[in-house]
Structure formats: structure tokens, C-alpha cells
Amino acid sequence: MDTILVVDAGPSCVKFQVYSVEGEGRLRQQLKGRVDGLGSGPRLRASGPGGNPLAHRAYPIEAVPDVAAGMDIAGAWLRDELRIDPIAIGHRVVHGGPDHDRSVLIDHGVVARLERFTALAPLHQPHNLAPIRSILARFPMLPQVACFDTAFHRTRAAVADHYAIPHRLYAEGVRRYGFHGLSYEWIAKTLPRIAPKIAAGRVIVAHLGSEASMCALSGGRSVEGTMGFTALDGLPMGTGPGQIDAGVVLYLISEKGMSASKVHDFLYRDCGLKGFSGISNDMRELEASEDASAKLAIDYFVYRVGLNAGMLAAALQGLDAFVFTAGIGENSASIRARVAEQLAWLGVKLDAAENVRHSQLISSSASLIPVYVVSSDEGLMIARHTLALLMDGNLKNPRHESAS
Ligand code: ADP
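^ thats the input. predicted complex w/ adenosine-5'-diphosphate below
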């Protein structure tokens, strides 16, 4: 059985999935797992398609010191115990920089280019690249594909790609990239099956998870969004503030004496729902809390989703549908209901019963704009890109990039 391994390596955890390649290039998830607790208490856990447990083991801290070692543990388990020998590995890579508008087959030159974007995504890029490098060194003939969170947005117009700063900074890469591209691409590819006419029109997708963003799709292409140079911009997130006046950052430096690394940690770890509520970065805990600060943090989140929807509707010059996805978007009927209230001026009306049931279509027949809940599957998107590159026959020329 041919299989594709999908890897999503982050700062404290390596997530992996195995897909079998079936007739006509269809892909079926065989298992998923993760190695987490790096630096505290490393564990490998994996389960099969129905959630049946396949592995749950602990390792000494020194045996799994970093992400590359975490990948080695997962790889050895797949290879030696399950006899899984993938035909290719697809990696989630957060930043493809200005030039990558599609997935790419990896070689040493690609890795060197992607390393240059570490400064643009310091939290994720080094961890995305670590397993790629170690697999390239140990299994140089095994095809690896990089799938970028930025690539889907590279089609945006110049006005949506720039900041009002001197051009030399744009030229060196200070641009509005946008992220969550694999999730938005999944939605853009899935919508034609759900609502073909709408998919060809103007759609706002709200990816509301621990990290949250929104994207304006026109005819299935990304035209505008809430994230920019980094994933810090836009909506408030679990621990990030979202849109914030650059003057606040200057204040932290000049008045509070914070160093660049202190400001970095503050913005990535101490703000957002967590910093604002002082309670939790987890929306479930905030929704369960009676505390006034939890309520205000939720009010702010909902308000900012509404404000940004207005901005994106302006970018699209109208709206044909609104889509919720990711952890909060797919699971919290109450947040969806409150966001829908913010969109009432656009003619949005939810069907309360369908919303509580988490149905795919949750707007009422009286709504001017249909509202959908669509779960995004970034892992399968990566597996598809990886298989597409293999099937294109580009392996004969590993330096060649191809649409996927
Ligand atoms: P990420 O992939 O960015 O870690 P997810 O898409 O998994 O994030 O979303 C995580 C967020 O979704 C958390 O804030 C979590 O509280 C929220 N979430 C998950 N299920 C629910 C639920 N039933 N109600 C409210 N929030 C939920």
C-alpha cells in the first residue's frame, strides 16, 4: 500500500498523519499521532481512523530533546513497528516568503531559501524545517514536499500586499503575507461541492481557532485577509492581541524598557484572550466563566470578528456567503450566534436550531447571506499537494516547482 506521511512540526510538538493512496489518487487517513511534551515529558501518542489507540508511550526528557528527535521517534515507530514506508512526506511550512505561490519539492537549495524566512516566522519556521533537514540527511532519496501557509494568498493585488512604508522594506520581504492558507484553500476547494454558485462569488471565511484570522475569497481566490507580515495581526487570538497600534509597541520599549525579545514574548504569549481575561486562552473556559473579564474578552473577540467582516465585505464589494471554520468556528454555537448578530446589518439571520446542531448550513431561509460551518482539513490538503507533485512526475527534476 502506497502511503504519504504528513508532518506538522511546531515548537513543542510534532503532529503526523499517514494517508493511503487509493484508486484515482484518492487519499484515506490511516492514522494520526503526535510527539509532544518536548523538554518536559516527551510522549508518543497515535490513533487509527476510528480513534482506536495505536500507541501511548513516554520517553525520558534527554531521549527527545528537540523537534528533530521527536520526528525521529515517530519515524522509527512508523517504519520499524508498523512497517510504513511512505512514498513521500508532505510538511506544513508556515512561511514560503514572497516567491512561493505553491507547494514545492524540497532539496538542499529550497531548505536554504526557506531558512532565510526564519526571521519572518521565528516561532514556527525553524521547527518546520528541523525535521525536513534531518530527513533530507538520512533519507536523501525520499521525496519531501513543503506546503506553505502563505502560498494561497500570493495572488492578492499589490494594494493588499503592501504596507505604507518605503519600498526597500517591501523588496526585502516586509509584506502582508497572510496565513492559514492551507485551511482557506481547503475551504475554497470544498465550497464548490457544497454551494457551487456561491463558491464562484464573494465569501468571507472566519478561521476561529487558538490562532484566528479571516480571509476574503473572490471566485475561490484569496483577495484580502486579517493577518499580515506575521500571524500577530488581525483578530485577537488565544495569546496574541491581534490588531494593535504600533505606538503601543513603541511605548513598551521606550516607557517600560522592554527589550525586543521581551516584547516578542509579550505579544505572542501574554496577550489575546489570555492576557485580556487574565483567566485562560481557551474559549471553552472563558465561555464557562462567570467572571466579568472573561465576558469582556469574549465581547471583544466577537466585536473584532464583526468589524473585520465589514472590512472584508468592503474589499469584496459585497458578500455572497460567510463560512465558519476551526476550533471555535466549528464547535461554539454561542460564538457563531453572537458573530451572526454582528452581521445582521448585512442581512444575516441564523437558524438557531441548525446552529446548535452544528449543521453545515446554519442560516435561516430568511437570511440574505447563507452562513456555513465547514471543517477544514489542512492535513489532507498537504497530502493532496504532495501526491499532486509526485503524480506530475516532477521527481525526475527535483529542482522544478510545480502547481499542486
Ligand atoms: P489551533 O489548531 O490553532 O490550536 P483549534 O482550531 O484547535 O486551534 O481551536 C482551538 C480553540 O477552539 C480553543 O480556544 C478552544 O477553546 C476552542 N474550542 C474548541 N471546542 C470548543 C467548543 N466546543 N466551544 C468553544 N470553543 C471551543
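The longest helix spans residues 292-316.
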